[in-house]
Specification:
With 352 residues, the chain is α/β, with parallel strands linked by helices. The protein is built from 14 helices and 13 strands. The protein binds alpha-D-galactopyranose. Alpha-D-galactopyranose binds next to loops.
């Protein structure tokens, strides 16, 4: 296997089709060799965590400010990655503005208490907080880093079939519990107002290939489209090797595109529990088949903005922690070598 710094560039190979991205952190970009690897292979980055609400919302500042409708924000961690991207000419997908997860509990509480048992803020206040938060983030990013962000994950993971109910919304989300469905158009309206020309607004979710979830997502997208609030469907793309169904991914991608939306695959990885010869081969075949499908979609005229891997090498994947077993899900090994899967993906790009 070849050192990842000596192989051809992945993003250059896919330039005719879509951007190639990776989720990164300041820990990775501070490592000079890793920074080089990122710049060589990716022309889009996502912050793995640094742009999520819990990295941006400032608890002490919020209490000091004393405004019930507006939290204080601290952009230190956001700016680290935006500076890296700007200085290296890499585009950024901002992940994420409204999410039930990795948003501090105090953001949902009437007097900003950091306590699950404290009374929740009423609906009108929550919607005002959401509106102000989105405005503050977008204004900062677009003023201080013009042209760096090309797409915004406005809402992440609002549909959850297991929680039932009409529309299959994630009813256990504090956003849903406090505002019903209203936070969805409210978030997208605020984002539309704050977006710079050319920036796309994205709805992002996992298992977006699953037919039941897909149809519920399509229902939501149509209501957003009625107000011209959404531009892009983000299919996360956390797959499991033995269950990857490329046909279902293709069917879902075509169904979203048929709404007139652009597509992104925002969090690609394929959980693979061993790195032995047989698994490596299976991973290679899975990536080959999946990328061939994506290239075909692009050639069929479907607008794919980017395919983003969730991590750079196996060493920084979230999967071993999440699955509580080893995982080798990405194209680069922990010691920064290009796997056979990398070669297969490059070949897909080059084939006629
Ligand atoms: C979801 C989120 C990501 C990340 C992954 C797990 O997919 O959208 O931000 O937290 O889970 O790492």
């Amino acid at each position: 296997m070849c050192n990842a710094l000596e192989t051809p560039s992945l993003f250059q190979a896919f330039e005719p089709y879509f951007r190639i991205g990776a989720a990164v952190s300041s820990r990775l970009t501070a490592d000079p060799e890793m920074a080089q690897l990122i710049c060589r292979h990716f022309n889009s980055i996502t912050a793995e965590n640094q742009m999520k609400p819990y990295s941006v919302l400032d608890p002490e500042g919020t209490l000091e400010k004393g405004d019930p409708c507006r939290a204080a924000v601290d952009f230190t961690r956001v700016d680290e990655l935006l500076s890296f991207a700007r200085d290296n000419g890499i585009a950024v997908r901002y992940h994420t503005l409204a999410w039930h997860n990795q948003t501090p509990v105090w953001f949902f509480k009437e007097h900003w208490e950091n306590d699950w048992n404290a009374p929740s803020a009423p609906k009108d206040i929550m919607l005002a907080r959401l509106d102000n938060y989105i405005r503050d983030v977008m204004e900062h990013v677009n003023t201080c880093f013009p042209g760096v962000v090309y797409t915004w994950d406005v809402v992440n993971e609002a549909i959850e079939p297991e929680q039932g109910g009409p529309g299959l919304f994630r009813t256990k989300s504090p956003w849903f519990a406090l505002t019903g469905q209203d936070f969805l158009p409210a978030a997208f309206r605020a984002a539309r107002r704050g977006a710079a020309p050319g920036q796309t607004l994205c709805y992002n979710d996992y298992n977006a290939f699953d037919p039941v979830k897909r149809d519920a997502i399509i229902g939501l997208l149509k209501t957003l489209q009625a107000e011209n609030l959404v531009d892009t469907m983000g299919m996360q793309g956390h797959y499991v090797l033995d269950h990857l169904n490329v046909g279902a991914c293709e069917t879902a991608a075509r169904a979203y595109a048929a709404l007139g939306l652009k597509l992104q695959v925002t969090e690609l990885d394929i959980h693979c529990s061993s790195d032995d010869e047989a698994h490596r081969q299976a991973l290679t075949d899975a990536y080959r088949g999946w990328f061939a499908m994506m290239k075909k979609l692009s050639r069929d005229g479907i607008g794919i903005e980017a395919v983003t891997f969730w991590g750079v090498t196996d060493a920084d994947s979230w999967l071993p922690g999440f699955r509580r077993e080893p995982s080798y899900p990405l194209l680069f090994t922990a010691d920064r070598k290009a796997k056979p899967a990398f070669g297969a993906v490059l070949k897909v790009a080059a084939e006629n």
